[in-house]
Amino acid sequence: MINLKTLSPKQIGFLKLIGFLLACLPFVRLIVAAVLDQLGANPLEFVTRSTGDWTLYFLCITLAVTPLRKLLQWPWMLRLRRMLGLFCFFYACCHFLSFLWFDHFFDLEEMWRDGLKRPFIAVGMIAFALLLPMAMTSTNRMIQRLGGKRWARLHQSIYLVALLALLHFFWMKAAKHNFAQPILFAGIVSLLLGLRIYWKLSGKLSGKPRANLEI
Ligand code: HEM
After folding, report:
1. 128 CB under 6 A from ligand 1?
2. Cβ atoms of residues 99 and 48 within 8 Å
3. Using CA atoms, how far apart are residues 21 and 32, in angstroms rounded to an integer?
4. What angle do CA 124, 155, 151 make, to 5 degrees?
5. Which of 83, 66, 84 is nearest to 75 (CA)?
6. Rounded to an integer, what distance in angstroms lies between the CA atom of residue 30 and that of residue 16?
7. Cα Rg of the chain, angstroms
8. Dist CA 169 CA 52 (whole Å)
9. Is 60 close to ligand 1, i.e. is its CB under 6 Å away?
């Protein structure tokens, strides 16, 4: 019987591989659907929406690592967090590129004007700009160079990204009077951030020290 509280490095490696393959599936599905011409009546919209959805899903999955690790007492979950965060960034890049390519054919000026005209796009761009430094400092070398505290402070901008991503989603869906999904994600993000606030306050009150790299 596997003890999920203490996994060996080999078992963690295996889990990472499974996680990696599963995380690639949405991208592979898009490529296969494109090759088979099965992207629906509006393929460009399908790609932009699908990659936007997966950016949001991976953002939530990454934010869920710390609460799950604490609640289930599975310390090894921390070893999956970097990969999950990088998948969030990967799908954000695909989302951004699909918009830049299909909507504006790589015309940055035109994209900029669109951002001013449709503020939900500007909000998405800010969220994406905040993801960039996090992805660039995700290596062990960068953690060492920055120092644990500075690194953790920089990576805490993931909370702001989550709020901006929600605003982006709400704003986009509001134009279509469709609030069900944004409300669902607002609930998930509130729970994930609310637990952190609760733990931070109760940790402070009971004087418990916090790990440097905790996000
Ligand atoms: C962290 C960053 C981002 C997240 C989490 C995100 C997430 C999303 C989500 C969930 C949707 C709705 C998909 C659906 O209808 O099911 C969406 C739509 C959209 N996003 Fe983003 N987005 C991000 C960044 C960006 C950026 C940087 C741009 C462009 C510069 C952008 C442009 C768009 C556009 C144009 C749509 C609407 C697509 C349509 O109506 O067909 N997003 N995004």
Report:
1. yes
2. yes
3. 15
4. 145
5. 66
6. 22
7. 19
8. 9
9. no
Q: Rounded to 5 degrees, what angle do the CA atoms 14, 16, 18 make?
A: 70
Burial of residue 49 (CB within 10 Å: 0-12, 13-18, 19+) is middle
Instruction: Report pLDDT for 211.
Output: 52
Decide: 95 in ligand 1 pocket, CB within 6 A: yes
* Atom 21 of ligand 1: nearest residue by CA position: 52
- Confidence tier at 215 by pLDDT (50, 70, 90): confident
Asked if the model's pLDDT at residue 208 lies above 70, the reply is: no
Token pair, residue 137, equals 């400092």
**Distance in angstroms (rounded) separating the CA atoms of residues 194 and 31:** 37
Tell me how far the alpha carbon of residue 135 lies from the centroid of ligand 1, in angstroms: 19
User: Percentage of residues in the chain with pLDDT exceeding 70?
Assistant: 95
Q: Biggest alpha carbon distance in the chain?
A: 59
pTM: 0.93
Give yes or no for a contact between 11 and 80, defined as CB atoms under 8 angstroms apart.
Answer: no
Tally of CB atoms within 10 A around 96: 19
What confidence tens digit (pLDDT) does each residue in 62-103 have?
999 999 999 999 999 999 999 999 999 999 999 999 999 999
